[in-house]
Design a protein that fits this description.
alpha+beta, five-stranded antiparallel beta sheet, two-stranded antiparallel ribbon, 9 helices, 40% helix
Length: 254
Amino acid sequence: MKYEAIETLLQSLPGEIGFSYFCPATGDRYAMQEDLPLVAASVIKLPIMAEAFRQRESGQINWQEEVTIRPEDKLPSCGALTYLHDGIRVTIGDLVTLMIILSDNTATNLLIDKLGMENINALCQALQLNGTRLNRKLFDAAQSAKGIENYVTAGDMCRLLAMLLHGEVVSPAASGEMLSILGNQRLNGKIPFYLHSRGIPVAHKTGEDDGITHDVGVILTPNPQIMCFLSNHTDVPAAERCMQDIAALLVSAQ
């Protein structure tokens, strides 16, 4: 019955919707258009984080290396670094944390430069995230005008989160650390909306842009549940209410 209710909610939305649900403990799955590549918005920051941890463990980057934030590095909208004084110094590890918990766009582009776009995409391929691709940095107006976008699928993000739960991304310790960062997410108006007041934590990453709203994460019930919701060209308030309602339904049904 819960999947029928979820399907009804999803089908009520306009635009392109990708959805994937998985409970590893029970094997329960439900998906709708989970292999549909959709414009990623900030969900692309998940594989960027994974590549940062891979390079840390291989010794290619130093988590404690400091980066100076210059005026030309600063990007609009989400995050904190844009609003702090020019010349502030933060570590690579700080950039990763800010990229996830505040969806900091300045941190993201600095990490793409540091890690290498080709390395991020190579990791996606190695993890069999076949519909996920980083094609440009954030707020690259020239590339965007050419129709060049970053893409993810709900199925890929579900797979990545399941691998994190099983300790299979980079290493068990790195996977656990990544889930901890996701659990410190400060943008909690979507999947966690009804859950935090009930004491149910969620490790997740959001994304949004014009006509776009996403949330992908792990609902940390006794049997963790992975829920990945992506939408393009949709009614954003309606889609966000849909996410909230589906998450509440999943928790109540377990």
